[in-house]
Specification:
It is a single chain. 49% of the residues lie in helices and 12% in strands. It has 396 residues and is an alpha+beta fold. α4 packs parallel to α10, α6 packs antiparallel against α8 and α13 crosses α14. The longest helix has 26 residues. The structure holds 5-S-methyl-5-thio-alpha-D-ribofuranose and magnesium ion.
Amino acid sequence: MTIALKEGYEPLTETTAIQLIKELGYFQEHDQLRCKEIGDGNLNLVFHIQDENDKALIIKQALPYAKVVGESWPLTLHRATIEGNYLKNAIPLVPELVPQVHHTDEVKALTIMEDLSHLDIVRSGFIAGKAYPKLSQHIGEYLAKTLFFTSDFGCNQQVKKRLQQAFSNPELCKITEDLVFTDPFHDSETNDYEPELKGTVKGLWQDDSLKLEVAKLKYKFLTHGEALLHGDLHTGSIFANETDTKVIDPEFAFFGPAGFDIGQFFANLLFQAITRTENNEIIHYHLHQVWETFEKTFTTLWQTSSVEAFTRTDGYLEYVLRDYFKDSIGFAGCELIRRTIGLAHVADLDGIEDSTRRLASKKIAIELGRQLILQQSTIISTKDLERLLEKAKRGE
Ligand code: SR1
Ligand code: MG
């Protein structure tokens, strides 16, 4: 299938990326620049451009198709605008936790931003055994601030409705609706699992009580515009080192259920909790700490920065937090399953070379995902979540 490109759009190459960045005045014409395409995600081109003094910038450009599948899967370039606008909205809320944006171009579908190559992609660092001691505190704060200030509790409710229009993101939402919710629970062509998992996977497809709970979660994703979500908050969307954390890649942003972002982060910690052979404690620490920080920060904002009269009503905050937590557990369950048997996998699992250990880990991820979806209502703390994780690891 050929993709009709808009006038003014051309996928960059390492050469044209250098030309562009000079034309825009970020470097001088005579500067000797090195440029490397470093994108290893599913969808975009990412160019790292550096001069001889190590001044560096990133150009991220959307491709008109999903890179992970190829040109047969056309994809809107508008996602670059969504990403740029999300970052611009987030910068005043969490300035230390997102990259600086220097320039956006809707037609060329690109964002020029701060270079983050002094940091690691958290997924890769985690797989290599790193700890990122500040990660969960930072992400807890990120979640609380970005979700609170774009919700009806922290954002003028008419402004929020206008923002919702600006962040309408149907094509990217459709990807999540299909790949996270629908496809893994049906015999869909997009699924991708090892033949040894066939029996386990079929068990999911035949489990009507599980499918009913997934249907409810998908319905919530489709209908509950609670806050502006990042929409794809996995550990591949986060850069970090010992002291700093930066969240990137918000091209899936839209107004959805707050628990979705929290749940995706939980699930991607759980992949580590399942697969790590040592220093597991830090992952358990992150699981507790992210929710603790989220709850504490969200509570403070509720008490100090609310725009909603009912936030002074006893019991309302507890109701909202309980609802977010319950949703996050269900969404985490879906993420665990889809990253194991759906189209887009994670290196935490696929990177395990020993096939016995890899398959055992995948079975744990699927079973834990199933339990989280079925038991959303009874898991009321991260301690409960931890207990369920341990049970799934013991094969109970
Ligand atoms: C076709 S895109 C596959 C996945 O990659 C993105 O990062 C999202 O997680 C999406 O579901
Ligand atoms: Mg991404």
